[in-house]
Write a structure and sequence with these properties.
Blueprint: H1 2-26, H2 39-47, H3 54-57, H4 63-78, H5 83-91, H6 93-102
Helix pairs in contact: 1-6, 4-5, 5-6
């Protein structure tokens, strides 16, 4: 039984990494960045057109939750999806990142003023 649970967890991890990798590739970023901790958050910030120093906000408890949701919504909007999809990215990334990466969504670079 424990082996089966481990196998399911491993499959989910591989699915999330593949989805994130493909999402990065669609946005013109290196796909391998999906497997590098902290650097993958930096790449998500680039995709969401947020400044690099927002990475520091991820280190502050409770603030990081709000920032993660904001960045997920911005990533969704950068791919032509709505805020609901962005909340899905933040809360159920293991489902929504593969949808974003392997789906028909295309990246349009957001412009921040």
């Amino acid at each position: 039984m424990a082996f089966l649970i481990l196998l399911v967890e491993l499959a989910l991890i591989v699915l999330v990494i593949a989805g994130l990798w493909q999402t990065f590739a669609k946005a013109g970023q290196p796909g391998w960045a999906a497997i590098i901790p902290i650097y993958n958050v930096y790449i998500l910030l680039k995709i969401a057109a947020r400044p690099w120093w927002w990475l520091l906000l991820f280190l502050i408890p409770l603030v990081n939750i709000v920032i993660a949701v904001v960045v997920a919504i911005d990533v969704a909007k950068a791919f032509g999806k709505g805020a609901g999809f962005g909340i899905g990215l933040a809360l159920l990334g293991f489902i929504f990142y593969p949808i974003l990466g392997f789906g028909a969504a295309t990246y349009t670079a957001p412009v921040r003023t």
